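ok trying this again, last paste got cut off
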Amino acid sequence: MPDLSRTSSPEVPDPAQQPSDTAADSGADPDTDAVDALRSGVMRLSRRLKHQRVDESLSPAEMSVLGTLARCGSATPGELARKEHVQPPSMTRIVALLESKDLVRLEPHPEDRRQKVVTQTERAEAMLEESRRKRNAWLAELAGRLDEDEWATLRAAAPVLEKLAHL
């Protein structure tokens, strides 16, 4: 397995040289060490990516719901709550906030008139596209600091990381 913890760029710290917040630093188990480095790297990168937002008025939860709608299509608030791992009352509040910002609309459910279906608006689609563009540009700039071997390793790892994110 390739060692993803190495980097040649002085701007990107080497996770192997960073203090860890778990007992995995003992070096006793390479798999445990790799999982620890992966967790740490993914969390740090995620936090940095969150700062590359287009609309600062949206919370991470609101952005996540819009992303889920973009990936999965329209859904009931209950379905969104399950997909987002939040309680239904929390999702009801998030959907109401998004609706007040004209980012989603509620439509009658085609089979159950007691329910509504949440659909993202064109404004939300445009905002998500701009957000993706900005984050991709930022990430591409960071990746440009990697050497060819590191970039090839990262390209090969991308589908695996995507799979992990959806398991």
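PB: full thing came through this time. The longest helix spans residues 122-143.
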